[in-house]
Amino acid sequence: MNTKSSERTGDHSVKDTSPSLLDELESELSAPPQLFADIVFDRPLDHAYTYAVPEALQSAIGVGRRLQVPFGRGDRSTVGYCVGVHNVAPARTVKEVQSVLDTEALVTDALLRLTRWMADYYLCGWGQVLHAVVPAGAREQAGLREAVFVEPVPDAELPNPMPALTLKQTAAWNHLRGADQPLEQRQLARLAQCGTGPVSALVEKQLARVSRQKVERVALQAPPAAEPAPPLTLNADQLLVWAPVEQAIRNGGFHAFLLHGVTGSGKTEIYLRAIEEIVRQGKEAIVLVPEISLTPQTIERFSGRCGAVAVLHSHLGDVERGAYWRRVAAGQVQVVVGARSAVFAPTRKLGLIVIDEEHESSFKQDSTPRYHGRDVAVMRAMLENVPVIMGSATPALESWHNAQRRQYTLLTLPNRVLDRPLPQVGLIDLRHDGPKNRQEALSPTLQQAMRDSLAGGGQVMLLLNRRGYSTHVHCPACGFVATCKNCDLAMTYHRQRTALVCHYCAHEQAPYQRCPMCKQTAIRYQGLGTEKLQSEIESKFPSFVVQRMDSDSMQRPGSHQRVLDAFRSGQIHILLGTQMIAKGLDFPNVTLVGVVNADVGLHIPDFRAAERTFQLLAQVAGRTGRGPRGGRVLVQTYTPEHPAIALATAHDYITFSRQELAHRHTHNYPPYQRLARLIVRSLKQEAAEKFTNEMATVFQHALRKLANQTPPRAGVRFLGPAEAPVFRLSNYFRYHFQLQSASAGVLHQVLREVLITVRPPNGVEYQLDVDPYNML
After folding, report:
1. In Å, how far from its chain's centre is CA 634?
2. I need a labelling partner for 426 at 20 to 30 A (CA). Which of 70, 220, 438, 595 fits?
3. Among 637, 729, 736, which Cα is nearest to 691's?
């Protein structure tokens, strides 16, 4: 029998010390299953990488956390985001996770779904989106410190007999027993008026135990306290608008509203009522406003009515951003008010998203991922099944088109509150009624209107959307024009800084005394900026206080608020500035608004130029006539017949949108066709041009392949390659393509097929912008 057993088992039965097959099987069954993590990186990669999770890290691993892993051929230690954990072993051998960097997930499941959609739609890496979504302060745990907490042991675990205590130990023990939560060690010592020694003694005597936690190093400064304002009585128009909004909020579920209301019609009251209802339900709200509109006045409106409010803007440091992110994630904030990136706030129970001034181009990000905050907000609302309200006096034509197609529910507030009329708008044709001195900005008509308004005790606002003193410098003898050495853009003279400045790359140089080409001294500083306008007004209105508001004059912390407070209190009589003064401001004593040059930005190679001009004029006109004294607007222009100007002065958005949409339809521009723009750039012109031509060849091949498909699909219009309108920026030579299609799916298919096959050489890079807003 032993011989037969030996024959059956072969050599395995020779050594009595070998584990039996049963032991091996039991060992395999008792071992934890192998875990694998899918990880994405802050790189333009279109897929996740799978790593094995060592047994020691399996309890710490989790979706939404950052992991340190070896990456690439050199196994360079790299940080990535875990987007999946599973037991499915890959077909090939994989590398192991080195460490887990976070104890809690940085992003929620809802944000993971949203960022996955963004990566697919904007054709960039999922890891790139996650890296942009999570602020550096949250990633690096900025503002956190490790604190030691002390708590008493349960009564059942107290030593028996009780050890003897000193007077200071007794004081600490009594404070600890009287607290309803663990106390930080130094806080307990302060309460007991002792050092940390007596507290440590309680731990040694087994009366207390310690734990370590991360806590905020500095307490966040709350928004300015505001008196809780009672809800206003809604007028008839507001009641009609509020009814469907209230129903959608109470019923729950996704519903997209486009609230079209003239300036001063009471849109904010609709927002506030909706948010109050959401907070009553124990949910949270996100309110997106343009950065330029994040004024103290705006913040006070929300903090006075909506509970705990977090305000997110570009001036916050990493410590503050990280602290707000953690507070929102912990459910300590009911309302998040902020600019574009606030759409990613990690709310635990989102109930509503509001987008004020939804037409604003500042909601579009100009670096990877090049998302539009409004579109991402609508998608987030859809994914989390909550309502979204988009409001504007001049909705983006894409949003207006969606309302016409009934994808959004259109709500209208056609009248101002308290039956106040819209301001009268007058046009000043600069061809016939311009300044007598060509170096000046104010026409006689506008000057007289300013005098009349100021004499009546009113205030004046003037818009000029150009910074600096002189917007171009040239030599009349040889034709030389001062351009940036890094960009194909004219330099602007800033008198306050005594420098020529490029408004794109920020290059500065000393102003010219002589022409660098012909050495003549007749160099001319021409064109009009806000600095020159301020100088002219101060000379013509010497008895009135004049203040300029632009990005040059508002650089110090708090300067924006100080100027607006002074203007509101009447200490400033004339406020002039760029588009910074056009939005988010409500001053009842402003009786005159003047637009110094309505043509700025109208005649540029951008299909949205007319829409932007109409929106800016309509918005700035809305700054007057908000009080019982009424007000009027005067617009200086060389093209009073242009529809964008003529219809803006008539407050006629409906006609403008109809005409502009017909124009867009004729030329196959959004919203009728989807648009994507590719820019190839390099410090070497030849390298950029060569790769551009290679990429064009690949695109043309893909388009021929698409044209031959059966059944036929929507086509793609391919324009380019060509030099970009601004060919050189920051020393980079730029070529661009433009692709248009009636089908977003087909457009994305072509882009994916091409971009996955082309790799730019060293020194050349390309940028893809889906739904671009900057065409220069």
Report:
1. 33
2. 438
3. 736
Pairing mode, if any, of strands 255-261 and 183-184? unpaired
Question: CB neighbours of 152 closer than 8 A, spacing ≥ 6?
Answer: 173, 176, 177, 207, 208
CA angle in degrees (0–180, nearest 5) for 104-105-106? 115
Tell me if 467 sits within 8 A of 477, measured CB to CB. no
Q: Which of 66, 71, 68, 70 shows the shortest CA–CA distance to 81?
A: 66
Do residues 443 and 500 touch, judged by C-beta distance below 8 A?
Answer: no
Under a CB-based contact definition with an 8 Å cutoff, are residues 36 and 89 in contact?
yes
| pLDDT tens string 749-766 | 999 999 999 999 999 999
Query: What is the average pLDDT value for the chain, to the nearest integer?
Result: 90
Q: In the structure encoding, which two tokens stand for residue 410, read together?
A: 């259109």
User: Taking each helix axis from N to C terminus, what angle separates 109-121 and 126-133, rounded to the nearest 10 degrees?
Assistant: 130
Cβ-count burial 105-120 (b if 16+ within 10 Å, e if not): bbbbebbbebbbbbbe
Give DSSP secondary structure letters for 9-73. Answer: HGGGGT-TTSPPHHHHHHHHHHSPPPEEEEEE-SSS-SS-EEEEEPGGGTTT--TT-EEEEEETT
Q: Are 649 and 636 in contact (CB under 8 A)?
A: no
User: What contacts 292, CB < 8 A, 6 or more positions away?
Assistant: 360, 362, 579, 580, 583, 584
Q: pLDDT (tens digit, 9 = 90+) per residue, 210-263? A: 998 888 876 666 555 556 667 788 999 999 999 999 999 999 999 999 999 998
> How far is it, in rounded angstroms, from Cα 588 to Cα 584?
13
Phi and psi of 479, rounded to 5°? 90, 5
Torsion-angle region of residue 668: left (phi > 0), alpha (psi -120 to 50) or beta? Answer: left
313, two tokens: 């803007």
Strand 350-356 and strand 183-184: the pairing is unpaired
Which two tokens mark 448? 């007289």
Residue 437 neighbours by CB under 8 Å, 6+ apart: none
pTM listed for this prediction:
0.88
Q: Is 389 helix (H, G, I), strand (E, B) or coil?
A: strand
What is the rounded CA–CA span in Å between residue 105 and residue 139? 10
Q: Does the N-terminal peptide bond of residue 435 adopt cis geometry, omega within 30 degrees of 0? A: no
User: Can you say how many angstroms the Cα of residue 134 is from the centroid of all Cα atoms in its chain?
Assistant: 12
Are 617 and 645 spatial neighbours (Cβ–Cβ below 8 Å)?
A: yes
Q: How many other C-beta atoms lie within 10 A of the C-beta of residue 691?
A: 23
Contact 555, 494 (CB under 8 A): no
- For tokens 């708590």, the residue is 151
- In contact, 222 and 327? CB cutoff 8 Å: no
**Residue appearing with tokens 């309509």:** 618
pLDDT score of 26: 55
State the sign of the Cα–Cα–Cα–Cα dihedral 125, 128, 134, 139.
positive
Q: Which long-range contacts (CB under 8 A, 24 or more apart) does 689-694 make?
A: 689/733, 689/735, 691/760, 691/761, 691/764, 691/766, 692/721, 692/735, 692/737, 693/721, 694/758
Closest CA to 524 of 511, 536, 533: 511
- Report which of 721, 715, 723, 766 is spatially closest to residue 741, judged by C-alpha positions: 715
Q: Which of 360, 339, 357, 382 is nearest to 260 (CA)?
A: 357
The rounded distance, in Å, linking the Cα atoms of 332 and 736 is 46
Q: How far is CA 291 from CA 296, 342, 417, 770, in A?
A: 12, 11, 26, 22
**Residues 405, 664 contacting (CB under 8 angstroms):** no
Cross-sheet strand order for the sheet of 764-770: 716-729, 732-741, 674-682, 764-770
542 upstream amide cis, omega within 30 of 0: no
**pLDDT over 90 at 360, yes or no:** yes
| Predicted confidence (pLDDT) per residue in 555-575, tens digit | 787 787 888 889 989 999 999
